[in-house]
Amino acid sequence: MMNAAIQTRIAQLQIVKAKVLAALRKGENYELKTELNSEYKERRKEAVRRVIANMTVGKDVSGLFTDVLKNMHTDDLESKKLIYLYLINYAKTQPDLVILAINTFVKDAEDSNPLIRALAIRTMGCLQVQEVLDYLCDPLRKCLSDSNPYVRKTAVLCVAKVYDLNRGIADENGFVEAVRNALGDVNMMVVSNAMSALAEMNSMGGDVWRLEPQIVSRLLTAVNECVEWGQIAILEALIEYEPRDEKEAENICERLLPRLQHANGSVVLTTVRLLLKYERYVKRADLLAQFAKKMVPPLITLLSSEPEIQFVALRNINIILQRRPRLLSKEIRVFFCKYNDPIYVKYEKVEVLVRICSERNSEPLLNELKEYAKEVDVDFVSCAVNAIGRLAIRFEAAAERAIAVLEELVQMKVDYCVQTCVVVLCDILRRYPGRFEAVVTTLCEHADYINAPEARAAYLWALGEYSEHIPSVASLLGAAVDSLLEEEDACVQLALVNACVKYFLKQPQRAQALVLRALQTASEKCANPDVRDRAYIYWRLLSADPSAARTVVLAEKPPVRPENSSLPEPLLEELVNELGCVSSVLQQPARQFVYARAERAGVPRGDAATTADYGTQAAVDTTPGADAAVGEPELLISF
Prior knowledge:
By secondary structure, the protein is mostly helical.
C-alpha cells in the first residue's frame, strides 16, 4: 500500500512538473495572451498593466497587438489610457492592424466624457500613420469646435501633428485656419496651446502665422491666466516679435514684469530673456533701471532651489552678466559657496563671483576665495587660486591684497595648493613688472614644495627675472642645473636655460661658470632637440655679441593682460535669445545641436558643435570636463 501511494504521488508531481515546464516554454507572452482574453474584467486590466510595464522596460510585446486591441472596448479610463499608449508605441510596426481600432477611436471621439474624447483625438494624432489620417479629419473637425475647452486645447495640438504628417490635408480641411481662430478662444489654455501649435508648424518650415500687435496684446492678457506650461509657450512665441516703436516695447516690458514673480524658474528666465530683448528699444534710463531692479530678486531666488536648478540658473546668470555686467554687483555675498554645495555648483559660483567683482568689493571676495583654497578638493582649490590671480590682474588696487593671500597659502605648505599659487604669482609679477619683487623670496623659501612642471617653470622664470634681488640665486640655479637631465618636462629645461642666461647677463662675473655648465649640459647631453637648439642659439649669441644677447634676452616684455572670459558678441546675442534653454547651459546656440535649426542655419552635422563660424574661440570654461562636448560629430537632439 505504501509503495502504491508513493508511486501515485510521484506521478502527480511529474504531471505538475510537466505543466510548469510547458508554461515556461510558452513564455510570459503566452501567459499575458491568456490573461488578456480572460472572461474576468480585473484579470484583463491587470494583464494590460503588465504588458505596459514590459513595454516600458524594453521587452518586445508587439506579438500581443491583436489581443490588446480586443480590450479597447472598455469603460475603464485607466485601461483605455494604457491601451492607447500601447497602440502609439507599436503603430508604426503594425500599421495594418491599427486600422482595426479606427471604429473605436471614432466612437470615443463622440463619447459624453470629455476626457475620453480628448484621449481619442490625441491618440489618433500621435499614431503618425498615413492610413489613419482619412479617418481622423471628421473627429478632429468636431473636437476643434467642442464645447469643452479641454477637448479644444487637445485638438489644436493634434492639428500640428497632422500638419507634420500631411500639410495638404491640414490646409484643405481648414485645420490651420481653425487653430488661428483658436487664438481668440475664451479659454486661455486653448489660446496657449494654439500658440504652441502655430509655433511648431512654423518651425516645420511653413509660414502659417505671424505675430501682429492685436495678437500680442491678446497673448499678454492670456499669459496671466495660464498654467506655467502655457505661460512658457506664450512667452517663447513673443521672442519672435519685433515691436513697432519704443512705446510698444515699454508697454510689453511693463506687462511682463509680474511674470518675474512666478515660482517656476523657466517662466522667470524666459521673462528675463524677453526683457533683455525689448529693453534694446527702450531709451528712458529710469525705465531701464526699473527693469534691472525687478530682475535681480527672482534671479537670486533661483539660487535657493535644488542644486540642479542652481546650476542651470548660474549658467544663465553668467550669460546675463555679460550683457548687463553691473546687474548683480551689490549681491556678491549671495554667490558665496556653501559647505554642502555640489562641486559643479561651486565652480559656477566662483565664475560668477569673478565676473561681478569690482574694486570696491574685491577684498571680501579675496578673503572668501582664500577659504576656498584651503579645502581638500584639488581641482576646486586650483579654481579658487586661479580666481584670486584673475582678480589681481584685473584690478590693480586688489593686487597687493591678492599677493598677501597667495603668500599665506604658499606658507601653508600644502603641495597641490603651492603649485597653483606659484604659477599665479608669476602671472601677477608679469602683469606688474617692477613691483612685488619681495614675493620671490617666499618662493625660494618653499622651493622644495614646487614639483609640478608648470610650477617649476614659473619658479625658474622668477629666479632668472629677479636674480639681482635673490642672494642665493647661484646655489638655487646650480642645484637645478645639476638635476637638469632628470627633468622630464621640456618646459622646465627651457625655463632653466633661460634663467641661467638671464642671470649671466645681469651678473657676468658671478654666473660665468654656471651658464657655461648649463649650456654645455643642455647642448650635449639633453635628449630634447628644442632644448639643445635653444642652448646652441644662446651659446653662439653670447660668444658673438653679448650686447646683442642682452638686447634680445633682457628686452622689456609686454605685461600680461586680463583674460577675456566673455563670449564672442554674435554668440552672446544668440544665447541671450535662448535663455532658459539647453543651449544656455551648454553655451552653444541651439542651431548647432538641434537637427531642424541646424539644417535651416546651414550648419553641417559634422561641424555642429563647433564655434568656428564666429571667427573666434568662445570663452574659456573653467568647469572641469566642460570641453568634452567640443567637436562632437553628431547632433544631440532631434525634433
